């Protein structure tokens, strides 16, 4: 990860929404190494929405499909709040709804650093 990414991420609260424990743990490690703070991780849409109702977040990494449920309600809530996020998916990203066309996405499995670099780029534009 580039030093400028680490500088941008330092102290940022990042929500992780991921239902695969190994990927989730890798993201937690990468986020903490960059000096950011992990919110979650959570493995369900309901859990993510509960966190968003009570806990401020600055950014998020969302797995598109969680236990056969799509993460779109969480993504929509983040858009309403103007919170940047990255989508990760093991499926064809061309199948994402048009409203997420401008949202960066990472193909799974990819290194956690890929999604985190995309998130740093989004945050640096603010």
Automatic annotation (TrEMBL):
Pfam families linked = Response_reg
UniProt xrefs under SMART domains: REC
Q: Which organism is it from?
A: Novosphingobium anseongense
Please list the residues that carry the modification 4-aspartylphosphate: 63
Query: What taxonomic classification does the UniProt entry list for its organism?
Result: Bacteria, Pseudomonadati, Pseudomonadota, Alphaproteobacteria, Sphingomonadales
Q: Which terms are listed as keywords in the entry?
A: Phosphoprotein
**What is the superkingdom listed in this entry's lineage?**
Bacteria
What residues does the Response regulatory domain cover? Answer: 13-123
Q: Which residues form a coiled coil?
A: none
Which named protein is this? Response regulator
Q: Which PROSITE patterns match?
A: RESPONSE_REGULATORY
């Amino acid at each position: 990860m580039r030093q400028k990414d680490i500088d941008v991420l330092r102290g940022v609260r990042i929500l992780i929404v991921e239902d695969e424990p190994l990927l989730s743990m890798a993201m937690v490690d990468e986020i903490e190494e960059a000096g950011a703070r992990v919110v979650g991780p959570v493995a369900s849409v309901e859990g993510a929405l509960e966190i968003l109702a009570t806990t401020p977040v600055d950014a998020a990494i969302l797995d598109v499909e969680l236990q056969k449920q799509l993460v779109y309600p969480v993504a929509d809530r983040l858009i309403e709040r103007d919170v940047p996020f990255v989508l990760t998916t093991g499926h064809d990203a061309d199948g994402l709804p048009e409203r997420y066309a401008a949202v960066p996405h990472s193909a799974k499995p990819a290194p956690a650093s890929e999604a985190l670099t995309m998130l740093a780029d989004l945050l640096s534009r603010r």
